[in-house]
Hints:
Elements: E1 3-11, E2 49-56, E3 61-65, H1 72-82, H2 103-118, H3 122-125, E4 133-135, E5 138-140, H4 145-157, E6 162-166, H5 173-184, E7 189-193, H6 201-211, E8 217-221, H7 229-238, E9 243-248, H8 259-266, E10 272-276, H9 279-292, E11 296-298, H10 305-316, H11 329-332, E12 344-345, E13 348-350, H12 363-369, E14 370-375, E15 380-381
Parallel strand pairs: 5-6, 6-7, 7-8, 8-9, 9-10, 10-11
Antiparallel strand pairs: 1-2, 1-14, 2-3, 4-13, 12-13, 14-15
Helix pairs in contact: 4-5, 6-7
Amino acid sequence: MRIVRIELDEVVVPALPDSVNSEEFDRPLHKLASGGRPGWSIQFDALPKTIIQVQLANGVTGLGEFYRDAPQATLRATALRLMGANLAELNLQDLPLARGRWYDGFECALADAYCRSAGIPLYMLLGGAYRKGVRCGFWTGHRTVADAVRKAREGQSRGFDCIKFKCDLADPVAEWCAGIRDACGPGMKVILDPNERFETLPDAVRIARQLEPAGNVLCLEDPLPRWNLAGFRALRAKTVIPVAVHVSLPYLEMGQVPQDAIAAIGEDACDYFNFNGGIWPCRQLFHAADLYGIPYWHGSEVDLGILEAAYIHKSAAGRCATLPADIFGRLVREHDLLSAPLRIENGIAELPQGPGLGVELDHAALAHYRISSWSTENGRSGT
Length: 383
């Protein structure tokens, strides 16, 4: 299982029309700074993603996907360092690589290659599956009230029983939820994710109490700045709406670490968790929540099909991963770069059963969306 070649393909896959915000709003959703620009100034689909293919001497190729805007120089230097390594001699739980937004893509590809070589699906490497399908939610961004209701009805017509909205203090979230209840019934739940932008405890309490009469809010995700766990705990005491903490390990540069989950549990700061990160780092988070019986779901960055396949395997292997996962990339972007899309029916993502991730790359789609290519064969940009 020696690594003999690594290819990195940088792609830009646009969002589908009407999948993100109402046309009245120009509100970028990328939270991190990029290229000298501050957070919330770039729309996520304008930033490139990178696909990695790791070829072994036995002919197996493992697939991975990096989070958006991964630094190409770091990816290439790391790929060169991995050349010649034997997967059988690596600790897949703790790879000898620097941590950052690039780590998880390498981890994904190496785990896929290992499992393909062994002839087992990824979830078996994680101990087995608690379920053969993972509940997923519908998703959208900032909307007018009429548009929010329309998107909820669209999601419901596709079989989803939950829709997640990005929002902030400027959004009429109580009107959204009341309209969705009237149009879709109380069974269509709503997750509101302001990404910490309800800002203060008084604002969060005010909004929560406005939302309570609708009766359809599944939870408020990161309503306050995440350093303010005491505020999360106080908010829980002042509303019947559940509160979720999002621990996003790809946001290492914003200070998010696995120990954040332990801190939130110790502060009694949340009812639920949203976790995302690498395969084994996420397993650590899952186990912490499992021990306390706290339900969670797998988050995302509106990713493509390779990462989302990994999310399904991880969620299937998580005992308390029972809340609707953020697995909706093909519903938002033009393509997921898979030869056969992930099967999502009636809001349930089917667990792939082939070896490794159980998915294959659509090479024609990869070529269509590619903006650069590089491989370790020559150590320089290819065609």
